[in-house]
Amino acid sequence: MVFFAVSLGFSVSMPFWADAIYLRWLSELACYFVMAQMWNLLGGYGGLVSIGQQAYIGIGGYALIVLANMAGINPFAAVLLCGVAAAVAAMPISRIVFRLHGPTFAIGTWAVAEILRLLVANTTVLGGGSGTSLLALRGFDRATREAITFWVSIGASYGSVLLVYLLLRSKFGLALTAIRDSELASRSQGIDVGRTKFLVYVISAFGFGIAGAIYFLGTLRISPDAAFGVSWSPLIIFMVIIGGVGTIAGPLFGAVLFFALSKVFEDFGSWYLTALGLLAIVVTIWFPKGIFGFIEDRYDLRLFPVQRRLRVRSTP
To answer: Residues 6 or more apart from 300 whose CB is under 8 A from it?
Structure first.
C-alpha cells in the first residue's frame, strides 16, 4: 500500500515536469493496464475466455463521441459515463453469449463485436466507416488536454487494480474462483453461478468501456476498425498470458513488457508480430503460469495477496 500511494503521487506530479511524449506513452500504457486487468478478471479468475471484449472498447470510444461531441458533456467527465454505457450494453449481450459455452462462447463474443462494428460503420451520424474526430476538445490547449488525459488514465489504471484486488478479497472473489475451477461443485455449495458470471461480465465491460474512452481521448479520432477491430484481443490476451493468468501483478508486468517491445520493435512490421507470437508460445510451454506467475511461485512473492491460508487453532 505504501508503494501504491508513493507511485500514485509520483505519477500525478509528472505533467508538471515530464515531456509530453512520456505523458502520451504512459497514458497508452495505463489503458493497457486497465484492459489487461479486466480481461484477467473475466478470463483468468472467472473462467470466461472472451475474444470479443473489443466490443466494449468500441462502445466506450463511441459513447465518448456521442456524449462529448453531440451532448456537449465535458469529454473528461464523460469517461466514467462511457464505462456505464458499456456496462449497460453488456447486460442484454450477456443474456445471448451466456447461452454458449467454452470455445463457442469465445467465438460468440467475437461475433458480437463484429456485428457492432458493422452497425457503427453503417451509421452516418457516427462518421460511417471512415470514423470521426473528437471535436469537443478543440477548446482545450494541447498541454492542458494531455495533462488531464494523463491524470484520467492514471486514475483509471490504479482504480482497476484496486477494484480487482478488493473484489478478489471479498466473498464474490471466492465465488468467482470457485466457479472457474468447477461450476458443478460451486452450485453444490450454494453459489449463484449465473448471477456471479453476469456480474463479472458487466464489471469487465465497464472497465473496457472506460479504457476505450481514454484511449480515443488520447488519439482524438475513432473509426469502427480501430475501435472494434479483432486485433485488440490477441494483444490483450498476450499481455495476460505473458505476465500470468490469474494474478493481479502478472497482467501489469505483461502490459509493460508488451508496451516496451512494441515501442522498440514496431518498425519491423510483421516480423515484430511474429516475434510476439513466438514469445507467447515459448512462455506458454516453459512458464504455464506466465513469467510473473513463475516468479511468484519460485520466490513466494505476493505483491497483491488474495489467497486464503488455513489457520488451525490449537485447543486448550
So the answer is: none
Residue of 175, 147, 162, 176 whose CA lies nearest to 17: 147
Predicted structure pTM score = 0.92
| Residue 8 located in a structural domain | no
- Asked if residue 259 and residue 172 are part of one domain, the reply reads no
Give the closest residue to 63 by CA, choosing from 33, 45, 39, 87. Answer: 87
Rounded to whole angstroms, the Cα distance separating 47 from 50 reads: 9
- Residue 170, domain extent: 14-229
Query: Are 290 and 302 contained in the same domain?
Result: yes
Looking at the fold, whether 267 and 289 belong to one and the same domain comes out as yes
- What DSSP designation does 17 have? T
Within this chain, do residues 64 and 186 fall inside the same structural domain, yes or no? Answer: yes
- Cβ–Cβ < 8 Å for 237, 62: no
What dihedral angle (degrees, nearest 10) is formed by the CA atoms of 19, 23, 28, 33? Answer: 130
Count of domains forming the chain: 2
Q: Tens digit of pLDDT for each residue in 36-81?
A: 999 999 998 888 999 999 999 999 999 999 999 999 999 999 999 9
Q: Please, which residues bridge with residue 240 across strands?
A: none
User: Is the pLDDT assigned to residue 3 strictly greater than 90?
Assistant: no
Confidence of residue 304 (pLDDT cuts 50, 70, 90): confident
Within the chain, strands assigned E span: 132-133, 221-222
Contact status, residue 46 vs residue 180, Cβ threshold 8 Å: yes
CA distance 116 to 122: 10
Q: What is the pLDDT of residues 251-297, one digit of tens each?
A: 999 999 999 888 888 777 777 778 888 888 888 888 888 888 888 87
Q: Is residue 312 part of a domain?
A: no
Distance of CA 124 to the CA centre of its chain: 29
184: cell is: 458443478
Cα–Cα distance, 13 to 20 (Å, whole number): 13
- As given in the structure block, the three cell numbers for residue 18 are 515530464
